[in-house]
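User: I'm new to structure prediction. If I give you an amino acid sequence, what do you actually give back? Let's try with this one:
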Amino acid sequence: MPDTSATQPEETSGADSRTSNPPGPPGEVLRPVPFRGGGFAPRRIGVVGWILFTVILLLWELGSRTGVISQLTLPAPSEALTAFADLVRSGLLWRHLEASLSRLLVGWFFGALLGITVGFAIGLFSLARAGMVPLVAAIFPIPKIALLPLFIVWFGIGEESKVAVILFGTFFPTVISTYGGVDNVDRSLIRMGQSFGLRRFSIIWKIILPGALPAILSGMRISASIAIILLVAAEMIGAEFGIGAYVMQAGNLMATDQLVAGVAVLSVFGLTVSWLIGRAERYLLRWRS
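Assistant: Good question. You get back a string of structure tokens that encode the predicted 3D arrangement of the chain. For your 289 residues, that looks like this:
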């Protein structure tokens, strides 16, 4: 038999040398590999949005001042700002805001609350799913603005019809997002909770609700935008005060500067709601980070 006792120490010493002296050019400084497990988490770069918004306003102002954009069809932002300042000085802004915010908050709150309740019922109970899913699928595609005259017949031309159309419009997207979020919860987590003997309420509260919450909040973003659209449509019919009524009056008078000022207020509505829901997402979904 060949004698391998002489070669074995050499192989061992070679392995030790490879471990203690990794390959690379002489004098190279080795650095630790950076962490790569961020999971494509988005970074918050808030200044980019403000820069883009400022650039658009500056180009708009420049186009209006140079005549590229017609003053009749689209006034300069500075003129819209002047119209907004006149609205503030007259004191009418607060009356319009009070009327619009009260309708928006009441309609959206109860529409979202009812939608989340029905969405969880569909997601958790087979009987509710069998009865409600076809009904939601049949009514959801109907334009809610087209039903506004019917709501006026049912509830009158006062506040009830305006709140009802907002509630009705925000109910359906909230239902769909809620039971979709419930359906997407990992079933292995639910089985694990059942294996550990958790009660049904504990499984819903500790497993299903946190798992469905991202979809619910996304649905609330969509329903908030729909609520603002329906608010304007409802206030354009038979409302004395409200941002929608102000925009409608400005359009009838061809006061485009006031019209743009009213549209800007509606845009601020949307930004404020989006910011509030974003704060809620960062607080309620902090477990995802």
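You can read the tokens as a compact description of the fold. Here is one thing that stands out. The radius of gyration is 30 Å.
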